[in-house]
Specification:
Blueprint (H helix, E strand, L loop, with lengths): L2 H7 L3 H6 L7 H10 L3 H23 L2 H33 L6 H30 L2 H10 L4 E7 L3 H13 L5 E6 L4 E5 L9 E11 L2 E10 L8 H25 L1
Antiparallel strand pairs: 1-5, 2-3, 3-4, 4-5
Helix pairs in contact: 4-7, 5-6, 8-9
Length: about 260
Amino acid sequence: MTESDSKKDCPDVRDVKNVPIVQDSRLTRIKRIVEALSDFEQDEIAYEIQSRKVKKAHAYLADLKNLIRLSLFTGLIAGAAGGILTGFCIWFTALSLGGTTSIFTLLALSLTFGAMYMAGTTAFVFVVLKLVTLTPARNLIVQSNKAFRVQKVEVPVPINEGVELSITALAAKRGWRIQSINRQEGTISAQTAASLRSPGELVGIKVDSLTEDSSMVSIYSKPILTSMDFGKSGQNVSRLAKEIEEAGLVHQLLKMQ
């Protein structure tokens, strides 16, 4: 092979430098990170984002000037819409009855009713927003945005035995159906039976190793089709956590014997 042939086969360094470097956009990187998370971890992130938005809105409304400004703006829109609609109804009623109404009368009635609507709406919105910004109501709103429940329990068994105990606890539930088991990642998911309070919940378990002889079991539960389950997810999590914890203690005692 001649020197000229070898130069033809080797790519020019200048050409390599001129090749554009394709970089992932910020949105693509975020999507890749979110897709790598489990459904429950995505729910936790969504809940945290929603909580921050609620806290930011409460901080904005905590300022009395912002509260008055928002109430007046809402009342102005309601007053204008109510005044126009009232004037139209009066004009249409008078026309259907064969009477006539002057423009000045219609304008006066529209302004009067519009002012009444504006005053009532402004006062109502101000009172409601003021009540919402109070501490108990703020905490209730933040908590109600959480459509899932999470509870962690430490069991005195290795991670592989913790996974098996979790599978046994889910399989023992009447009407529950195990959907997936991944022993390598320590994850199990199941679907509960429908009830009067909920059409069913999705229950998940994630087992992580703490030490050689202990593991942490994270239990999740959320409604499937609705955003409310009237406390069913909380009941699923608390009962399942208690059963897994008791099973872990019994398993440890049997090993000691």
